[in-house]
């Protein structure tokens, strides 16, 4: 697996060994970054359930200001550290190891881009979105990008989110959300 574009283009990334991770393919990463375009430059990024760290490193490669990588697996944390070193991205990277609730609880800043790619079928999507919105972890103009099984359905409206884009790549779905602008909805 390699970084597809930007400063770290063609850098090879290692993938954590085992069944626990499901690395985002180059095709899907390329499509995601094509969809979010200029939102990446100078962005504060959270890569939750980071796995190999490929999404966060791709964002840094394309001009993001900083990325916080979070994962529960020690194998993933080791891979993320090695991949950050390979890209020489240490100054712009932080890593939290632990359960997603613990990691979200300890964050005291907000982000422009949040990548959510939890294990499919475990129902973490809405729980993550709930914590993110309750804690104010997404900036007003920020986006949440969720990689999911195409059969998964989210009740995102109850979190004051609007789905702005959705694409399917085989059995993988990519959904992008933003906060609903309440003032515009009320014509204020």
Give your account of this protein's structure:
The chain is α/β, with parallel strands linked by helices and 188 residues long. It has one domain (26-185): Rossmann fold (3-Layer(aba) Sandwich). Helices cover 30% and strands 27% of the residues. It contains 6 helices and 7 strands. The protein has a 7-stranded mixed sheet with strand order 3-2-1-4-5-7-6, sandwiched between helices. α3 (74-87) links the parallel β2 (66-71) and β3 (93-97). α4 (100-106) runs parallel beside α5. The protein is globular and about 40 Å long.
Shape: globular
Proportion of residues in β-strands: 25-35%
Enter the CATH topology name: Rossmann fold
Ends distance: 48 Å
CATH superfamily: Vaccinia Virus protein VP39
The largest pleated sheet is described as:
7 strands, mixed
User: What is the structural class?
Assistant: alpha/beta
CATH architecture: 3-Layer(aba) Sandwich
Total beta strand runs: 7
Low-confidence stretches: 182-188
Strand arrangement, major sheet: 3-2-1-4-5-7-6
Number of domains: 1
The succession of helices and strands, N to C, reads HEHEHEHEHEEEH
Radius of gyration: 16 Å
Q: Would you state the CATH class?
A: Alpha Beta
Q: Average the pLDDT over all residues and give the rounded result.
A: 88
User: Helical region count?
Assistant: 6
Helix content: 25-40%
């Amino acid at each position: 697996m390699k970084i597809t574009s930007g400063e770290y283009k063609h850098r090879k990334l290692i993938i954590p060994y085992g069944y626990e991770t499901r690395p985002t393919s180059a095709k899907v990463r390329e499509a995601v970054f094509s969809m979010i375009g200029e939102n990446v430059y100078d962005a504060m990024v959270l890569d939750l359930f980071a796995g190999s760290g490929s999404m966060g490193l791709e964002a840094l490669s394309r001009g993001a200001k900083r990325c916080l990588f979070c994962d529960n697996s020690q194998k993933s944390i080791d891979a993320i550290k090695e991949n950050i070193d390979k890209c020489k991205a240490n100054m712009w990277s932080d890593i939290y190891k632990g359960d997603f609730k613990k990691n979200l609880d300890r964050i005291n800043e907000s982000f422009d881009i949040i990548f959510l790619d939890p294990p499919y079928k475990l129902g973490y999507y809405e729980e993550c979105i709930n914590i993110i919105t309750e804690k104010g972890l997404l900036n007003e103009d920020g986006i949440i990008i969720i990689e999911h099984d195409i059969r998964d359905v989210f009740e995102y409206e109850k979190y004051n989110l609007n789905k702005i884009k959705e694409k399917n790549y085989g059995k993988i779905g990519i959904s992008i959300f933003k906060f609903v602008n309440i003032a515009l909805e009320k014509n204020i």
